[in-house]
């Protein structure tokens, strides 16, 4: 019996992003095709192609028994299961009431629609009927009366396909979903490299590339959150792929909880990629009639390198993921009190810091940790979390009055007055708090096991409706009673003890409800995510918060690595990046203020995190001009495309070019890490410009796009940590 089809569905993306011929399906992007069909014998979904555009299914000769020991090993299955002869890692694992763990999902029907339905309680991409089309394939396991709906939405302009899976129990017994990958895709016999973002606190999003080898390899998080350790993102590339050349597939999970990414090269040479929730923290019970939705996984393909893959993610996430009204708005230059004062402040020091900020031209003053707690004041990190009342000792006249006074300060060199922002960490609780005295049962715990602490704090169980209401009410009351225009939402530890594995996902669903309620009720507030820096920098968070504090490491050299790594998937507009004092508190390194500021300007939310009055006079004197430059180029960073020209891992001269949406302006960042003595400076070849256009560089010399891209441009650098920021304007 034939196991493949070879339907000549034409690649006509503009006319029809989804084409169906019987039970063969084609999803057509501008520059991609994704094609699969129903195997007529097994009813299984088999992938024919995911890559550059094709006009028919690539010819595949499937040998009936695989030519080897297993009869499924050669199949590229869209929704691989467990226990029926596919010995690779499965996308789905369900435990039935009778104890067996098989599934046998067969094609039943499909639905095609313009636009895209939203998930019910998870963040997800959105788009109009002109932007996105959706195919839902309905699968059915008649042995256990369980349905699986595979949803594929294609955004043709971004060559992006979004997949999610819904499992529905239509039987009479309760089942348990042990594993459910949002995405499963089987690549044909070939060699691949995998690229991931690994890290730690202060070292987030470090690029790591390795060869995909036989057997299972992968990474994930079991911390309860997406975590510093591994980001929920994977890229599969050809071994010769670079930033600007070659095939690159990107997979990004829209989820903030523990996740699991598996890459398995089978003995037959096929490579399977699975992306989804962490199965060790799932065991999700489904009663008769109930459904479980997986998060969405976004897949993007680029045939012109990793940089192009990143730009597709950036555009898609800005346009079709981030809901905030600020997504395309330049952000106010801010000063955050943390590194300048840490916990050591009171009303007068805060007002002085706000005055100093305004005098430099800062537009938003942010009061970080330490402003709250009455009976258990938060004067260090041992107490107060959970008690969201103003510390009366530190602020005897109330914080509201201080915030109003700060909001009256005029920012130098502008007509604006200073805005006021506040730090919160509402998911957490210290034992030393009134909240813990009143509600010890709200804390995540597992029976009588020790409630183990990190940074002297415990985690509230956001899966509980009463905890959700407490958090919503606490944050809403701050926003209703003070002139707060910005919130930094922090989260400083992972989840340890949990009542059940399923509680991990339930917690995240609870948090999404909280974020949804608060960000919809307060749409004019600029929300910034944070988790000890970038411990929760993921596509799920971006649905609600248009920016994230990228790392607690503000050392400018390290930040080039961190920000370039983060930009692999997340738009630069979403990165919080601040200038801090030197020697840097994390690394001890000293770099010039210009270098620190130039690096921070590559992030969408530029700011300062220092006490200006403690700076050397010369450094302080440079800040107003650096702020003016950051504000001038901000629209290009926020809305433009980023081209990583030289990577810090590969060059002493890392550089990036940001090009405005209309292509009329660009800003070049060029850095020298170490001075190299008598040595020629490299020619920096730009990318992404219009070769036939002429560009004026910093209002001075003019060069054509062709010369800038093919010939390059050379800059003279001085000492270590030197930098240039150059504005290009098309004339
Ligand atoms: C961790 C954050 O990443 C820092 O920026 C700061 O807000 C501290 N928490 C405050 O406790």
Sum this structure up briefly.
With 731 residues, this protein is an alpha+beta fold. It is built from 12 helices and 36 strands. Among the domains are: 18-60 and 75-320, alpha-galactosidase from lactobacil brevis (Beta-galactosidase, Chain A, domain 5, Distorted Sandwich); 659-730, Immunoglobulin-like, CATH 2.60.40.1180.
Topology:
Layout: E1 18-21, E2 24-28, E3 33-38, E4 45-51, E5 92-95, E6 106-114, E7 133-141, E8 146-155, E9 160-169, E10 175-187, E11 193-198, E12 206-211, E13 215-220, E14 230-237, E15 248-254, E16 259-265, E17 271-277, E18 284-286, E19 291-293, E20 296-302, H1 305-320, E21 334-336, H2 338-341, H3 347-360, E22 364-367, H4 399-406, E23 419-424, E24 428-430, H5 434-438, E25 457-459, H6 465-481, E26 486-489, H7 502-521, E27 526-529, H8 539-542, E28 547-549, H9 556-566, E29 575-580, H10 593-600, E30 605-609, H11 617-639, E31 641-646, E32 655-659, E33 665-672, E34 694-697, E35 702-704, H12 705-711, E36 722-730
Helix pairs in contact: 3-4, 6-7, 9-10, 10-11
The chain binds (2R,3S,4R,5S)-2-(hydroxymethyl)piperidine-3,4,5-triol (DGJ).
Residues 338, 368-369, 423, 490, 492, 530, 532-533, 549, 552 line the site of (2R,3S,4R,5S)-2-(hydroxymethyl)piperidine-3,4,5-triol.
């Amino acid at each position: 019996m034939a196991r493949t089809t070879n339907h000549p569905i034409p690649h006509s993306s503009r006319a029809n992003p989804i084409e169906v011929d019987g039970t063969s399906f084609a999803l057509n992007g501008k520059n991609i095709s994704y094609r699969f069909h129903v195997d007529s014998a097994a009813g299984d979904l088999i992938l024919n192609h995911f890559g550059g555009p094709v006009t028919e299914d690539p010819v595949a000769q499937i040998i009936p028994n695989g030519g080897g020991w297993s009869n499924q090993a050669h199949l590229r299955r869209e929704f691989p299961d467990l226990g029926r002869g596919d010995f690779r890692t499965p996308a789905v694992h369900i435990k039935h009431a009778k104890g067996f763990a098989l599934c046998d999902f067969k094609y039943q029907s499909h639905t095609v629609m313009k636009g895209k339905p939203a998930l019910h309680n998870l963040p997800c991409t959105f788009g109009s009927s002109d932007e996105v089309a959706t195919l839902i394939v309905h699968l059915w396991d008649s042995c256990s009366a369980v349905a699986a709906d595979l949803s594929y939405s294609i955004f043709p302009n971004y060559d992006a396909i979004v997949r999610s899976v819904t499992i529905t129990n239509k039987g009479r017994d309760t089942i348990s979903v042990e594993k459910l990958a949002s995405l499963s895709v089987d690549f044909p016999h070939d060699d691949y490299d995998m690229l991931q973002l690994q890290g730690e606190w202060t070292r987030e999003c470090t690029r790591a590339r390795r060869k995909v080898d036989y057997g299972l390899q992968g990474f994930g998080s079991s911390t309860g959150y997406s975590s510093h350790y591994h980001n929920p993102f994977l890229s599969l590339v050809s071994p010769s792929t670079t930033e600007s050349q070659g095939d690159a597939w990107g997979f990004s999970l829209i989820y903030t909880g523990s996740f699991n990414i598996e890459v398995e090269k089978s003995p037959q040479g096929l490579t399977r990629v699975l992306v989804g929730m962490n199965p060790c923290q799932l065991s999700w019970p489904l009663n008769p009639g109930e459904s479980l939705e997986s998060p969405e996984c976004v897949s993007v393909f680029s045939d012109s390198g990793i940089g192009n893959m990143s730009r597709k993610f950036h555009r898609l996430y800005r346009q079709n993921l981030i809901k905030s009204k600020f997504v395309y708005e330049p952000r106010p230059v801010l000063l955050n009190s943390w590194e300048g004062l840490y916990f050591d402040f009171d009303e007068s020091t805060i007002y002085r810091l706000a005055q100093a900020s305004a005098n430099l031209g800062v537009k938003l003053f942010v009061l970080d940790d330490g402003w709250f707690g009455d009976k258990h004041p938060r004067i260090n990190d041992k107490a107060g979390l959970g008690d969201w009342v103003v510390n009366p000792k530190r602020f005897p006249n109330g914080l509201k009055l201080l915030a109003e006074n700060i909001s009256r300060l005029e920012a130098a060199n502008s007509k604006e007055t200073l805005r006021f922002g506040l730090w919160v960490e509402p998911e957490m609780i210290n034992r030393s708090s009134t909240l813990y005295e009143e509600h010890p049962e709200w804390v995540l715990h597992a029976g009588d096991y020790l409630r183990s602490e990190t940074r002297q704090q415990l985690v509230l169980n956001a899966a509980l409706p009463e905890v959700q209401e407490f958090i919503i009410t606490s944050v809403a009351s701050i926003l209703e009673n003070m002139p707060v225009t910005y919130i930094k939402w922090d989260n400083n530890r992972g989840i340890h003890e949990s009542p059940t594995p399923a509680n991990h996902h339930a917690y995240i669903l609870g948090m999404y409800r909280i974020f949804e309620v608060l960000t919809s009720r307060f749409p004019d507030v600029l929300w910034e995510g944070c988790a000890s820096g970038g411990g929760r920098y993921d596509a799920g968070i971006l649905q609600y918060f248009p920016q994230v504090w990228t790392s607690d490491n503000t050392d400018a050299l390290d930040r080039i690595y961190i920000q370039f790594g983060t930009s692999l998937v997340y738009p630069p507009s979403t990165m919080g990046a601040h200038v801090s004092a030197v020697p840097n508190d994390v690394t001890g390194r000293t770099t010039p203020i210009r270098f620190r500021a130039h690096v921070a300007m590559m992030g969408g939310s530029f700011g300062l995190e220092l006490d200006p009055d403690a700076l050397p006079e010369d450094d302080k004197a440079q800040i107003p001009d650096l702020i003016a430059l950051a504000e001038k180029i901000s629209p290009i960073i926020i809305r433009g495309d980023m081209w990583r020209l030289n990577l810090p891992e590969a060059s002493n001269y890392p550089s990036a070019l940001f090009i405005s949406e209309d292509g009329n302006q660009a800003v070049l960042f060029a850095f020298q890490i170490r001075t190299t003595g008598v040595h020629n400076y490299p020619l920096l070849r730009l990318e992404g410009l219009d070769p036939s256009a002429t560009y004026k560089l910093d209002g001075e010399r003019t060069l054509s796009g062709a010369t800038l891209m093919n010939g390059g441009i050379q800059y003279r650098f001085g000492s270590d940590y030197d930098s240039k920021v150059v504005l290009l304007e098309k004339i």
